[in-house]
Amino acid sequence: MGLRLLYLIFCRLLGCLLLLGRSAAVNNAEILALRHEVAVLRRQVERPRLSWADRAVLSALARHLPPVLRRHRLVTPGTLLAWHRRLVRWKWRQTAVGPGRPPLPEETVALIERLARENPTWGYVRIQGELRRLGHQVAAATVRRVLRRSGLPPAPQRASQQTWRSFLRAQAHTLLACDFMHVETVFLKRLYVFFVMEIATRRVHVLGVTARPTGAWVAQLARNLLMDLEERAGCFRFLIRDRDSKFTAAFDAVFAGNGTAVIPTPPQSPRSNAFAERWIRTARAECTDRLLITGERHLRTVLTTYTEHYNGGRAHRSQDLRAPDDDPNIIPLPADAVRRRQVLGGLLNEYRTTSPRLPHRPQGKTSSAA
Question: Going by C-beta distance under 8 Å and a sequence separation of 6 or more, which residues neighbour residue 267?
Fold first, then answer.
């Protein structure tokens, strides 16, 4: 800004030297032309924008004009006084402090939004109480303001916006899913596999393998499943199955006697039984499509081994990268030695950590006093 001011002063001084060598008539004609140009510009521009250097030059030149001519300049005495008041305010300005309480920390705002999203039925006061239990003193009006700013509606509207994913996740511990899987043997014979999955834990039960499934065979496998589940059989309230003709009334009656309602899926809608369909794809990709199956006995042995691996040695995304049979309360610690266990002849691998063995120290001879 200082260099610009020096440049403007130099240009004006150079212009003043050039005016000394010109006649008065030429200067008067130029003044008249400039006045007319200024009048034309004033009709087009309502309020010109001047920089700080322009204001300084115009103020210095206005001092040498007669009082009558000062009234018709862009820079008037009122303009000079306004500039002076602006300079005074700029000198004594202070950081403005907004009225009211200080803003909430970002951590508290994120916690309020998290509680509202994870608990659709919680109102403002309920969230306020939970925050107080966590050590945050926040008013209910503040909670309402934060949720409105985040675009989250009140509790009744949030509860009505529940998705199918959240609904199924809440009901997963009471759901079972069953389906058939077919495998082509090396002799081009089709075998059928009947299995049941526990939705909450993703634990799979392979119940039987046969070439000719019937309704009576499927009903007997259902009875075997309830016997294997024992006390846990009463925890399941719904069973999802498709509309295969092998699921007869006797099959539904077996689960009805246990208090489990059978829910048939809509026609031609495999996504309604997505968990069972996903296991079929996984079993084929990891096991049956990579082996040549010779018969029922071979397939039964392979699927039994694979099911043990699936339930006890395979990480699942829905289970926080744990196997269904893993204890969620146990945190495995890293060890020096990692052992590999081959499954199905090396088709699959399982890894376990083992503590390093201590070196064997032979016991010395002990002498006994007589």
Answer: 243
Question: In angstroms, what is the C-alpha Rg of the chain?
Answer: 43
Structure tokens at 103: 């803003």
Sign of torsion over alpha carbons 241, 245, 250, 251: negative
Alpha carbon 110 to chain centroid, angstroms: 13
Tokens (6 digits) for 220: 């007997």
**Distance of alpha carbon 332 from alpha carbon 353, whole angstroms:** 9
Amino acid identity, residue 155? Answer: A
Question: How confident is the prediction along the chain (370 residues), in pLDDT tens digits per residue?
Answer: 567 767 777 777 777 777 776 777 777 776 767 766 666 666 676 666 767 676 666 666 666 666 655 555 555 666 667 777 877 787 777 666 666 677 888 999 999 999 988 888 888 999 999 998 888 888 999 999 999 998 888 887 776 666 666 666 777 788 899 999 999 999 999 999 999 999 888 999 999 999 999 999 999 999 999 999 888 888 899 999 999 999 999 999 999 998 999 999 888 887 888 889 999 999 999 999 999 999 999 999 999 999 999 998 888 887 778 888 777 676 666 666 778 888 888 888 887 777 655 455 545 444 333 3
Residues 283, 286: Cα–Cα separation, whole Å: 5
Give this prediction's pTM: 0.57
Number of residues assigned to the chain: 370
Judge whether 116 and 158 are in contact, CB under 8 Å: yes
Sequence-distant (≥ 6) Cβ neighbours of residue 41 within 8 angstroms:
48
CB 193 within 8 A of CB 179: no
Helix/strand/coil percent split, the chain, to 5 = 50, 15, 35
